[in-house]
Amino acid sequence: MPDLDYVVSTRNLSKRFDTRIATEKGWEKRTVAAVSDVSLDIAPGETLGLVGESGCGKTTLGRMLSLFYEPSDGSITLKGVDVGKLKPREIKPMRQQVQMIFQDPMSSLNPRHTIESILTEPMKIFSRDPASVRRKKAGDLLESVGLPANSLSKYPHEFSGGQRQRITIARALVLNPGFIVADEPVSALDVSVQSQILNLLQDIKQEFHLTYLFISHDLAVVHHLADRVAVMYLGRIVEIADRDALFTDARHPYTQSLLSSVPTIVPNKSKIGRVLQGDPPSPISPPAGCPFHPRCPHAVDACREKVPTLETVDAKYRHEAACHRKDEIKRLSGDST
After folding, report:
1. Are 197 and 162 in contact (CB under 8 A)?
2. Helix, strand, coil percentages in the chain from 3-state DSSP, rounded to 5
């Protein structure tokens, strides 16, 4: 059973989607495994970074934890409550406890609504506060994210990208959640604005006592913000550890490849030949065994036959890796990370 002290726990969480593909015989129905057998725990006040290539299932996992998607298999426990055992009317109050910050602030804000309408609409659904109280809270939240309260009468198009993202952060705080899923919240912003939003996320985490799942493909951003980091590949968590342990002692070859691909100002010749080559396999027809073995330079027969499970590498740093050769991967890679 998940520890009740965790804000979020998942066990063997999976999500599959039905799709159709064109073949020589016409359209055929296939199943895409977007997320497979994910088990993780997020403690109160923790920021768990989730990284991986585009299409690996990060956003799908985030949307399941935000209660947007129902899992195909497995369970989600939110503050000790198994969400899968709740009736539809019982899930509604749980939605107040988890909110999501989306990647593109412009597409996630209704262009026909004023900022006041955007921020007060959730309060109308979940509370009976009078309009004056709702407006006051909306103005206070705008000031908390660095915008003046008199902006309530404006529309989304009247703000810059960074300001719009501040508004979506304020909207996520409206219902006083304890857990926020931030899905690449700075990737659509200018570099000069990214640091402002990251610092804001850190500030409101302390002020509002929040717990984050921070989804990103930018390892530098994750290193700055996260306490722990989980690495995802083709729908599976392949490595998870405390931030510094993962960045200095990665035990999965995919994690090592991600770290090697980070650009540096000073050229590093030791990285030549170690940057990951090729594209991920199709999730419609994943390879047998370890999903990473077609691209792995250290694959052996066991990798092609059996899917590795997450096993402890170092309990002190909560370090786990799903690799048949995790105990020797540092030597095989020349201790390069």
Report:
1. yes
2. 35, 25, 40
Distance from C-alpha of 199 to C-alpha of 150, rounded to nearest angstrom:
23
Residue 57 structure tokens: 């299932």
Say how many domains are in the chain.
1
Residue 150 is assigned to a structural domain of this protein: no
**Does residue 138 lie within any of the structural domains?**
no
Asked if residue 148 is part of any domain, the answer here is: no
Do 111 and 156 contact (CB within 8 A), yes or no?
Answer: yes
- CATH number, residue 215: 3.40.50.300
Task: Summarize pLDDT for 150-205 with one digit per residue, the tens.
Answer: 999 999 999 999 999 999 999 999 999 999 999 999 988 888 899 999 999 999 99
Range of the domain at 60: 8-105+178-190+201-332
Distance CA 234, CA 279 (A): 11
Q: How far is CA 293 from CA 159, 161, 258, 262, in A?
A: 46, 40, 15, 22
Is 0.85 topped by the overall pTM? yes
Is 164 a member of any domain?
no
Tokens of 280: 């991920």
Rounded CA gap, 332 and 337, in Å? 12
